[in-house]
Amino acid sequence: MNSSKYKYDSGLGSKKSLIIFLSPALLAILIFFFIPVISAFIMSFTDFSIYALADWNYIQFIGLDNYFRLFDDPLFWIALKNTFYFVITAGPLSIIASLTAAILLSSKLTAFKSFFRLSFFLPVVTTLVAVAIVWRFIYHPNFGLLNYFLSYFGISPIDWLGDPVWAMPAIILMAIWKSFGYNMIIFIAGLQNIPEQLYEAAEIEGANSWHKFHHITLPLLAPTTLFVGIITLIGFFQLFAEPYIMTQGGPLNSTLSIVQYMYQEGFRWWNMGYSAAIAFVLFTIIFTGSIIQLKMKKND
Amino acid sequence: MYQVGKIAVLFLIFILGCANSENDPTVLKFWAMGAEGEYVSQLLPEFEKENPNIEVKVQQVPWTAAQEKLITAFASDKLPDVFQLGNTWVPQFHSLSAIENLSEYVEKSTSIDESNYFPGIWDTNVLDSTIYGIPWYIDTRVLYYRSDILKRAGFDHPPRTWDELYEISKSIKKVLADKNKYAIYLPSNEWAPFVIWGLQNNAALLKSNNSYGNFSSPEFKEAFAFITKFHKEKLAPIGMTEVNNVFQAFKDEYFSMYISGPWNIKDFKLWLTDSLENSWMIAPLPAPTDEYPGASLAGGSSLVINSKSEVKQEAWKLIEFLSRKKVQLEFYKLLNDLPAVKSAWMDSIFVNDKFLKVFYTQFLNVKATPKIAEWEQIAFSKIQQYAEYTVREVMTVDEALAALDKDINEILKKRRWLLDKNEQ
Questions:
Q1: DSSP B180
Q2: What's the CATH code, domain B2-139+299-352?
Q3: CB B298 within 8 A of CB B123
Q4: Fewer beta carbons within 10 angstroms: which end of chain A, N or C?
Q5: Domains (ranges, CATH) in chain A?
Q6: Best of A43, A46, A51 to disrupt the B interface by mutation (most B CBs within 10 Å)?
Q7: Are B86 and B63 in contact (CB under 8 A)?
């Protein structure tokens, strides 16, 4: 047997075949990803609007004007503030909820595990439009289930979706309920990878369950948590469907998110240039957020 | 020899095929929205019988995605030959040069005549004194009111003036004496009432050839202050989430007056049954002065021809057909769309219907919103936004209208640039 047969050939021939085999995928990425992204980037320096569809001569290059306008646009700041509010509160809460659910479901004491796993995961796969209708009734100020429940504690009715103060918390609660099942499944997988011996060893050393959680579960789950954290961050920054269906950004723009603002400007009013600029600002924010998370992990 | 015969047969088939294709009817692509798209095909067999050489292909477009679809179709050169447009969209498609100038067609036509249309409605299709769309069906907004509650409040007639509307509202609130019941429903996510009140007060909404906002004008300010007073004095509910269903809310006396269009008649009839059947009515809108009725919005849909269509004559034939009195009446019977041609309104169905009579009166006094491509954005995003800021008292009337003008000036920047460019 000639062992060189198994060595990788670094010659020209293999590079060629590499390119040939990869080309369908590369071509698809080029056409459906890079070209649109680059054209959107170029578009963000123009005043591309509905008139541009009539005559390409109506497009002007305006340099960084769209970006300057953004910083001057109160609605953009409101949308940015709302999005951060959402990410900063809903993000950690959602991760805590999914981790708690995952640990409870991994416990040996839990009965009907698959039933609970299914029920917690069900919201993830349910259509948001259908869910939104149900939640609108839950949040209804006069005959909603939530206010009915709260009335037992003597809390007077809250106009959940109609009050600028409460609309965002209402959206957050619904978004967490809708999404925590997905992360829960990932956490369950992560928990199953932690060897049982570690817990047994700790028990012999006299560790209680908090010690075990703090010194075994959390550190060994760190890669999973990082993954979940980044995925949640990216997903939550793109908040769109929940407020779009539930509140249309209102009341008083208190639930207007960046993506929703971008959608309105772009596809409702055809201010594509401005909308593209918003998209790139959002991209920068998400990119920075992900980098910071990765850095923090490395420093640990 | 056998081979030659085979070729000859093939050749014959080919010739016949060609001849056949020459007799193929001209295909006319027609897009219509929502229910109209669904029902219009029931009217078309008659048209195709009259014009055996034309075959109409109807495509139904859902209302919610209609504008997006039409603009995308325009961008990719796939617009149909003839299509329906909400009449406030006509300026937008005109600015894209997507729709045909119909002046010559109307001039030559023996069946379509401007005098057979309500002037306010016809006007919405006229840009630079040129007609671009023919009204297909029309709508406008009137006042829905609970006559029984008005009676309890001491009024045997609907409000005729602004002052009377305010007085009636205060009396209703007093009579019902319930924190959760209001006199009138003016949700800030419906821009129409806010604009109607301004138009009634003769406010020019935009200025300098529609290139700057003019909402801070004294006329609009007065109207806007008047209408937002209802929210501030709790005569109208501020939020919108309490009303999941306007019909139910109207039935439950949550509000006793509501400004809406003909599309709601059917459902109100359905919800207010038995003892409530005769407890509601509609009336033309009140006016700022004694000149009752006050103006309302000129709404509805028009039929337009794609400027790049190759079968414009056939498309015009279809428009003429759909504008016939008989066809318009049939269309009304199918889905209650109000006919655009006045002669149809002389039919006994219309003369004897108490609701339709009110609409007829209102149609005689309707006004168009500014006819520019950006109007939709101004109305749906900006007017609604600042109406909400005002009714929730985040901003005063002056602040809100100044901010509204500022935003509108930003939206109209491109329009000003184009106007400058065209002048040079």
A1: T
A2: 3.40.190.10
A3: yes
A4: N
A5: 8-58 (no CATH), 69-299 (1.10.3720.10)
A6: A51
A7: no
Neighbours of B53 (CB within 10 A): 10
Whether A269 and chain B come into contact, CB under 8 Å, resolves to: yes
Tokens 């999941």 belong to which residue?
Answer: B244
Question: Where do we find the tokens 């003839």?
Answer: B82
Q: How far apart are CA B194 and CA B230, in angstroms?
A: 12
- Residue limits of CATH 3.40.190.10 in chain B: 2-139+299-352, 142-297+371-423
What pairs with residue B61 in β-bridges? B33
Of A54, A136, A253, the CB nearest to B95: A54
Note the pLDDT tens digit of each residue in B304-347.
999 999 999 999 999 999 999 999 999 999 888 999 999 999 99
- Would you call B381 an interface residue with chain A, using a CB distance cutoff of 8 Å? yes
Which positions 43-72 of A are in contact with B (Cβ < 8 Å)? 47, 49-51, 53-54, 58, 60, 69
Report the alpha-carbon distance of residue B377 to residue A209 in Å, rounded: 59
Q: What pLDDT band is residue A65 in, cutting at 50, 70 and 90? A: very high
Distance CA A7, CA A26 (A): 26
For residue A137, list chain B residues with Cβ-Cβ distance below 8 A. Answer: 244
Q: How far is B180 from chain A (nearest CA, A)?
A: 10
pLDDT tens-place string over residues A285-300: 999 998 998 888 777 6
Its ipTM equals: 0.81
Q: Which of the four pLDDT bands, split at 50, 70 and 90, describes residue B15?
A: low
Class of domain B142-297+371-423 as given by CATH: alpha beta
